[in-house]
Amino acid sequence: MAINLDLKQYINTYGLHNIKVIATGEGFRNSETVEKQYNNNPFIIYTDEGILFTNVQPGVSSIDFYVDEVLEKTIEHDAESTEDVLIDFSNTSVIEGSINHFIIVAHTDYGDFTSNNAMTTRVFGVSGMYDSSVALTRTDDSIGKTYTIDSTTGLVTSDFDDEFPYNTITEVTVGDSLFISIPEMWWRIGKDDEDNITDIAVARYKKGAGNWYKSDAFLVGKYLSFQENNMMVSKSGKSTSINYSALQWTTYAKANGEGYKPYGYYEHTILTFLWLIEFANKRSTNIINGYSSYNQTTGGTDSIETSTGYLTANNRMKYRGIEDFIGNDAVWMPDVTGAYYTSRDVETYKNGATNKTQLSYYMNITASQSWRGIQALGWDDNNPFICLASKLGSSSSNTYFGTNMYGPNGSNEYLSRNKIYSGYSSNCNLLSPVFDYQFTNTTSTTTSRLIKYEI
Q: 415 with 333: CB under 8 angstroms?
């Protein structure tokens, strides 16, 4: 039986601490000694009201507050208090709309200790998620922002390129696989009484009123999946592996080690929300088509100079470094069944409803094995960022999401595959679940993508 202990609760001073743990028990031999080091420093977060100093330790006598590396305040502090300290922005250079960096230095009788770096935050959003128009309305700090697509070169530049979170999305290598790093973010989600999403916004921290939710940082495979030595990898120059089931891809992803899993709706929702905020249009083919064939060699878009763009010869694309985010093969989505049962636990990426819960907005739709237009996406507070269609009906390429889905069919034996692929180009788009295969089925037009979380 594993026992998790938060050893930091026993640390009440700042600085470097050596932690030694030995497990003992009556009638048992003591365990081997485990030694770790922990550096305890002041921690601050940005809020609308000011900078919040959260891990106040005994002995803090005063606090220096720096804005953009300039000392702007010194606050005297009761050395016996460990309550959080809110440092407001009065009598500082911080003004509404400014972007600033903050640190504090906590003074004690045993030394001076510097906090992490916090920043002001901007909020980028769109509304109209449930409107009949495919166009979205920019809100908050998105107002006035736009993008440019050069039809001659296929290069896409955007006013969001230098803004969080887009400016922190970078390429990283783990082992032999290439990933795109997606940061932790805060999201403001608006919804109606039936859990249909009406508006979305993203920020570095919570800011202002509304219902805010934090999404986890993760790594997403830069390329579609390739099976190598019974493991899923993300590598350039590989022929996309096909004819593997969702169950097989889950096994191959997990074979990389702890924290690895196949792509699912949690990751797809977050990336889709970023796309919708950046391009303010619910029909992705109004922005970039993607390559409508499949099973292409990975790395075909490496020559594209910008993080988003497409090849003018065949429309093959990448979004923020992610190749074939639209187009090429479909991708299995094993975290949701055909009856909208879901779980983020990779061990549940299989048929059935065991250890899963049903999405709240499933009650809004009728199960049917047919094509129907997507009119709204749903939000379930118990399963945040698992966002599928919550309203289905008639639509066209110019209304609602400008796309269709097949199903859901009401069976927990089925899962969906997602995004445009050959044979369904008139129906599919960035948001186009197709519930037509079971978890054990294989097909030559569907693959996966590797995901990694820090554990």
A: yes
DSSP per-residue letters across 218-267: EEEESS--EEETTEEE--TT-BPP-S--HHHHHHHHHTT-TTEEE--HHH
| Whole-number pLDDT of residue 2 | 56
Greatest alpha-carbon span in the chain: 76
427 falls in which pLDDT band (50, 70, 90)? low
**Tens of pLDDT, residues 212-258:** 999 999 999 999 999 999 999 999 999 988 899 999 999 999 999 99
Q: Which segments within 384-448 are labelled E, that is strand?
A: 389-393, 404-406, 414-418, 434-438, 446-447
Q: How far apart are CA 87 and CA 47, in angstroms?
A: 10
Radius of gyration of the chain, Cα coordinates, nearest whole angstrom: 24
- The answer to whether 118 and 51 have CB atoms below 8 angstroms apart is yes
User: pTM for the complete prediction?
Assistant: 0.85
Identify the burial level of 79 via C-beta atoms within 10 angstroms of its C-beta, where 0-12 means exposed, 13-18 middle and 19 or more buried: middle
Cα separation, 380 vs 383, in Å, equals 5
Select the CATH number that applies to the domain covering 44-119 from these four: 2.40.128, 2.60.40, 3.30.70, 3.40.1000: 2.60.40
The H or E element spanning position 124 is strand 123-127
CATH 3.40.50 fits 123-452, yes or no: no
CA 344 – CA 83 distance, rounded (Å): 35
Name which of 334, 311, 292, 294 is nearest 428 in CA terms.
Answer: 292
> Phi-psi region for residue 305, left (φ > 0), alpha (ψ -120 to 50) or beta?
alpha
Q: Which residues pair with 227 in a beta bridge?
A: 232
Query: Model confidence at 62, in pLDDT bands (50, 70, 90)?
Result: very high
CA dist., res. 321 & res. 93, Å (int): 37
What is the number of other CB atoms lying within 10 angstroms of the CB of residue 253? 26
Q: Could you state, in order of their start, the residue ranges of all structural domains in the chain? A: 7-40, 44-119, 123-452
DSSP 277: H
Q: What's residue 292's pLDDT?
A: 78
Vertex 21: Cα angle to 16 and 24 (nearest 5): 165
E runs forming strands in 41-100:
44-47, 50-53, 62-67, 70-76, 85-87
Which residue in this structure is represented by tokens 């830069």?
A: 222
- What does the CA dihedral 123, 129, 132, 138 come to, rounded to 10 degrees? 10
239's tokens: 């022929």
Q: Which amino acid is at 382?
A: N
Assess contact for 64 and 73: CB atoms under 8 A: yes
